[in-house]
Amino acid sequence: MITGNFDYFAPSNVEEAIKLLNEYGDDCKIISGGHSLVPVLKLRLASPAVLIDIGRIKGLKGISFEGGTIVIGTNTTHAEIARSAELKKHCPLLVETAGQIGDQQVRNRGTIGGSLTHADPAADWPAAVLALDADIIVKGKGSVRTIKATDFFVDIMTSAVKSNEIVTEIRITKPAQPQAAAYLKVPQAASGFAVVGVAAQLTLKDGRCEKVAIGITGLGPKAYRASTSENALIGNTLDAATISAAAEKADTEAVDTMEDIHASGEFRRNLTRVYTKRAIMAAMSRA
Amino acid sequence: MRISISINGVKHDADVEPRLLLVHFIRDLAGLTGTHIGCETSICGACTVLMDGKPVKCCAILAVQADGSEITTIEGLADEGRLHPIQEGFWECHGLQCGYCTPGMIMSAYGLLQENPDPTEDEIRHGLEGNLCRCTGYQHIVDAVRHASRQMAAKAVKAG
Q1: Which residue ranges form the domains of chain A, and what is each CATH number?
Q2: Which domains does chain B have, with CATH numbers?
Q3: pLDDT, tens digit, for every residue of A101-117?
Q4: Is the whole model's pTM more than 0.90, yes or no?
Q5: What's the ipTM?
Q6: Nearest neighbour of A105 by CB, restricted to B21, B55, B62
């Protein structure tokens, strides 16, 4: 399969890339690892006239720490995150999520920024960035804005990034109890995408749940925070009955559900409840 | 676009369309047909090569994205006609039947053993999940990788 024809630019800095984006408007697409985009181009689901490759821009790749904040460049690959000893210590949820994406070849090419912007409803990253309450930094012509993870996913394959903007980094406040986290998913047998995936990050104090964030991917057209479940946990002692009751509400926020050959909507709802329970239990056991 | 890609240590310069895929650069321009094209949608792993040392699926990479990089294909593994221990493992343990997936399998196994020189059976299966085989049932492939891992460890001890 061959893609349509396009012009190709590989700018060396973000400003140049934004200039190109403004010049070509809706006719262009950004490419980095290309593991979401190239298959789409080959299937001719999209035929942009221009590709802007941000993969060669220095400074958009890597994991760094600014005080209590973890900063991940948009071009950082899933494999780099999965291998990071620093993240394993300070934010193992990222490491656990990265390690479950696709396969080693995909992890070596695919990037966190690309995956987030692509906003596939079955992708893994959305659940994790929601559970970590991440900020996604987006640059446009003369502007920089911060999009909260909760505002980032708009609809199926649609993020809040405008067509003339570029995601530059993902910023995450170091969790108070890094190890009290889990990402559990039901992978599609063939592609490894999440039929349902649940990420949970907890803060426990004197046996009670002080803080919890639960991100859910796969169930609906966009990933979401299971706020009803979270509210049923906060302030309470996390015994089996409390966790079960809270997890029963994990699909409350999902008005519409995905439905395909892998799972019906109702089955996905059930998986969401079951995996929410398991994710909270796993996070607790690791705390 | 003028690009330059090193494949198995040999530099290949060419003027290409931006839409040319890396796998076609390797097969059609460099003439190295050991790298296979299977599903074309980055699922099956038949097209796996090493890009700057790491296994990737080159049917999902544009040749222009690989400009300046170093690629290793199945043809680049044997050392002066002597099979690489992973190739030897596939030979010894009957890790293939039709052979179509084999070059990709071997390149993925190479990546896996680089990260984890002594993988368990589970780790091998997990490490090769990006490569599909429709004939062996995988067991002999797992055996081949374990064989290779033992051979490589023995070689390292000898060399060390």
Answers
A1: 7-53 (3.30.43.10), 63-173 (3.30.465.10), 181-286 (3.30.390.50)
A2: 2-76 (3.10.20.30), 85-159 (1.10.150.120)
A3: 999 999 999 999 999 99
A4: yes
A5: 0.95
A6: B55
